[in-house]
Design a protein that fits this description.
It is a single chain. The two termini are 25 Å apart. 6% of the residues lie in helices and 51% in strands. It has 139 residues and is mostly beta strands. It is built from 1 helix and 11 strands, in the order αβββββββββββ.
C-alpha cells in the first residue's frame, strides 16, 4: 500500500501540442449581436502540464525559438482533483482563466475571459472569451 500511495503522489509531467481554439470578441457596439469568432494563431504555443497530488502547474506561452517568446507558468497549489481530472482557476483585475486537465484523454482545456482595459493609446479593446484545447502526452 505504501508503494501505491507514493506512486499516486509522484509528479507527472506532460508536454502538449499547439492548442486549437477561437475567441469571441464583441465589436464596437459591445452588444452580443456584434460578436465575432476569431481564429487565434497558436502554432508557437506549446503548453506543458505538471501534476503533483493536488498541485497543478501549467506553462503557457511561445516556444523559446519564437521571436519575442514569453513563457508563463501558473502554479495552483489547491487545485480541485477527482478521478477524471484536475481543475484550477486564476483571476486578476482584468482576466479570469480556467485550466482543466483530463487524465484519461490527456487533454488540457483553457477558458479565458478578459475585460476591456484601456491601452497606452487610451483606446479600449473589446472584451473577449477564448477557449483552447491541447492534446498532451506524458514525458
Amino acid at each position: 500500500m505504501l508503494a501505491t500511495t507514493s506512486a499516486v503522489m509522484a509528479e507527472t509531467r506532460f508536454t502538449c501540442d499547439p492548442p486549437r481554439g477561437k475567441r469571441i470578441e464583441l465589436g464596437p457596439s459591445a452588444k452580443s449581436a456584434d460578436a465575432q469568432w476569431i481564429d487565434d494563431d497558436l502554432d508557437t504555443i506549446h503548453p506543458a502540464v505538471a501534476i503533483d497530488g493536488q498541485t497543478l502547474s501549467v506553462t503557457w506561452g511561445a516556444t523559446p525559438e519564437s521571436k519575442g517568446a514569453k513563457l508563463t507558468t501558473y502554479v495552483f497549489a489547491a487545485a480541485r482533483r477527482d478521478a477524471t481530472s484536475i481543475v484550477a482557476t486564476r483571476v486578476d483585475e482584468t482576466t479570469a482563466e480556467i485550466f482543466r486537465f483530463y487524465f484519461g484523454s490527456k487533454v488540457l482545456y483553457k477558458l479565458t475571459t478578459r475585460a476591456a482595459t484601456s491601452g497606452p493609446d487610451g483606446k479600449l479593446p473589446s472584451p473577449f472569451v477564448a477557449t483552447y484545447i491541447a492534446s498532451c502526452r506524458e514525458q
